[in-house]
Amino acid sequence: MSLERRELYASPNGDLWYLARFPDSGRVFVQHEPNRPSGGRVSHIEIGAFLSGGSHGPEHQALLRLIGTLVADQQHTMVDSAVAGATLNTRSNRRPWWSRLLGR
């Protein structure tokens, strides 16, 4: 199964955090790749669990910033569409939210 991902955060100790998605199923999650000294075992964390886990580390802040860009993107889309006289936000011209997060 293929995996699409976008780096969220690289910690000073070598841990890597990604927003990831399986295109076939549409499942979106956070992928954590710990550094080798701490085991290096990759884990997949559901987004809700990741954000509600009580931690507010830089990897969490990075995901929240990325989600926040969707609001800015939506505002630009609405203004651009209004200027062009196009129909706003029809299902046929909107990309899935996860495609914008992954930079697609």
Account of the protein in words:
With 104 residues, this protein is α+β, with helices and mostly antiparallel strands. The chain has one domain (4-101). The chain is 37% helix and 22% strand. It is built from 3 helices and 4 strands, in the order E-E-E-E-H-H-H. The protein has helices spanning 47-52, 58-84, 97-101; strands spanning 4-10, 16-21, 28-33, 43-46. A 4-stranded antiparallel sheet has the order 1-2-3-4. The radius of gyration is 16 Å and the shape is globular.
Helical/strand content category: alpha+beta
State the separation between the terminal residues, measured CA to CA. 18 Å
- How many domains? The number is 1
- How do the helices and strands follow one another from N- to C-terminus? EEEEHHH
Major sheet? 4 strands, antiparallel
Number of strands: 4
Work out the strand percent.
Answer: 15-25%
Query: How do the strands line up in the largest sheet?
Result: 1-2-3-4
Low-confidence stretches are 86-92
Mean pLDDT score: 82
Characteristic key phrases:
about 100 residues; about 35% helix
Q: TL;DR of this structure?
A:
The protein has about 100 residues and is α+β, with helices and mostly antiparallel strands.
Mind sketching the topology for me?
Elements lengths: L3 E7 L5 E6 L6 E6 L9 E4 H6 L5 H27 L12 H5 L3
Antiparallel strand pairs: 1-2, 2-3, 3-4
